[in-house]
Amino acid sequence: MSRDPATRVARRWVVCADDFGLDRGTIDGTIALIKLGRVTATSVLADSPNWRAAAPQLKELSGSADIGLHLNLTEALDSRGRSWSLPRLVVQSQLRLLPRWRVHDHIQRQLDAFTDGLGRLPDFIDGHQHVHQLPVVREVLVESVLMREPKTLPWMRVCLPPEGDSDYKARVIGLLGAGALAELARSQGFPTSKWLVGSYGFQPKRDTYMAKVRWWLHASGDGTVFMCHPSTRPSSKDPIGPARRMELGVLAGQAYADALSNSGVTVARGTTIFRARASKSPPPGTVDRAG
């Protein structure tokens, strides 16, 4: 994909820090990057015991970044609901054997916790380990949000990699329901993002990660969401802890700022990009549970 400076079209990225509230390190790292203007969205683990105390800090920054729900079905962060292992969740969802009542309970509790902390519904919704796009989960999620009769529907993160992305992990993530979620969400009037970048093997090598960032900047069109996982002091029990610290250093650094400038990409809020596009979407209707 050519990016000749004389001909390239202005492109906007949403830079989204995932896992807000997992621990103090994710809270501090995300807040620092929002204040630097490097992150324009963050998705909250509202079932984390850290969320309620951190919510006021994030609420103060709601004018600078979108605040979304990071739907969690695979991490036991509280004692009120039993989680699934990711492989089991994927298999049961694809076979449509997931109990809808259990999925509904998780979603309702997390929407309630988010609303209790921020005083409103999320600006957008995505999923921890991308679970929001899975069969059964996506239908129950859309129904649950519509039941709350929001004045403005949140945008949904779609996990499709950009054209030409040969990363195996990114392609598998996209194949687990990204297209179906996009179709369902749009049919019900939800704005959606277009592409997702930021998937890699969580190797904590700064130069390797920066090379991937430059490729994503080169290859991604307007409306891409760049997911990241920054933390100032990740837990020793966190399997991607070293990668979190590395990502924070890259995103706060000058090399990343230069890469953005050289690519012609600007960072923006999803509510600015996707809700404007959604104005031509069809009106909400009945959620189709098939497919």
Could you give a short description of this structure?
With 291 residues, the chain is of the alpha/beta class. 42% of the residues lie in helices and 13% in strands.
Low-confidence sequence ranges: 1-7, 280-291
Beta percentage is 5-15%
- Rg calc: 18 Å
Euclidean distance between termini CA atoms: 33 Å
Instruction: Tell me the CATH topology.
Output: TIM Barrel
Instruction: Please identify, by name, the CATH architecture.
Output: Alpha-Beta Barrel
Count the E strands: 8
Largest sheet report: 8 strands, parallel
Q: What would CATH call the class?
A: Alpha Beta
Annotated CATH homologous superfamily: Glycoside hydrolase/deacetylase
Q: Structurally, how many domains make up the residues?
A: 1
Elements, N to C (H/E) = EHEHEHHEHEHHEHEHHEH
Structural class: alpha/beta
User: Average pLDDT, to the nearest integer?
Assistant: 92
Give me the number of helical elements. Answer: 11
Give the overall silhouette.
globular
Query: How much helicity do the residues have?
Result: 40-55%
